[in-house]
């Protein structure tokens, strides 16, 4: 469990610099350059991510059950995860109405994803992993809303439709194949 916690502290800590120390972040970028900042950020994020994956995998071998999972939680989680994938796509497709309206769809997608997984899972490792991401996403969204809204490309219905289709396709690929292949759990049919 300690590897999971260390990974969460490192990964979410790096991603929280703008939340807790935006002025310090700005000074570091000015002093060291954007390329160096992004390189260190990416390296620390990658190390944190690897620790999270390995730590969560180890914790799943000896789960500490906290509650009995709600049967409907898996179904609701699937729907919420689909929404999260559309929100994730909205962060990257320029000129879509979802991003224009919500301003920070990726962070909202992380919130929805984390909540979905808290509903569907029931162990201490699940609570730590998805609870930490949910708390981080709430704090990050609040912080982002205080900053100036990001520039948004002119909105078109075609780009909004493309956003929804991209999110649906990515969700389907992940739900029906990648989740089982990479994580070992098939949301629609037993273990991987």
UniProtKB/TrEMBL annotation:
Regions that span the bilayer: 40-56, 76-93, 113-139, 160-178
Entry's Gene Ontology cellular component terms: membrane
Pfam family, one: NnrU
Main location: membrane
Keywords: Membrane, Transmembrane, Transmembrane helix
NnrU domain ranges (all copies): 3-187
Location in the cell: Membrane
InterPro entries: NnrU_dom
Membrane disposition: Multi-pass membrane protein
Protein name, per record: NnrUfamily protein
Native species: Leptothrix cholodnii (strain ATCC 51168 / LMG 8142 / SP-6)
């Amino acid at each position: 469990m300690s590897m999971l916690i260390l990974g969460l502290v490192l990964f979410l800590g790096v991603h929280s610099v703008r939340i807790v120390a935006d002025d310090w972040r700005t000074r570091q970028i000015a002093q060291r350059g954007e390329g160096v900042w992004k390189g260190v950020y990416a390296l620390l994020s990658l190390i944190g991510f690897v620790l999270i994956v390995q730590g969560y995998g180890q914790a799943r071998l000896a789960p500490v059950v906290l509650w009995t999972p709600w049967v409907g939680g898996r179904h609701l989680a699937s729907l919420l995860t689909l929404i999260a994938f559309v929100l994730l796509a909205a962060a990257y497709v320029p000129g879509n109405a979802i991003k224009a309206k919500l301003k920070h769809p990726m962070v909202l997608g992380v919130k929805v994803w984390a909540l979905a997984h808290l509903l569907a899972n029931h162990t201490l490792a699940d609570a730590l992993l998805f609870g930490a991401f949910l708390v981080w996403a709430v704090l990050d969204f609040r912080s982002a809303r205080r900053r100036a809204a990001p520039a948004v490309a002119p909105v078109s219905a075609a780009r909004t439709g493309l956003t929804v289709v991209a999110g649906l396709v990515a969700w389907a690929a992940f739900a029906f194949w990648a989740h089982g292949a990479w994580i070992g759990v098939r949301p629609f049919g037993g273990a991987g």
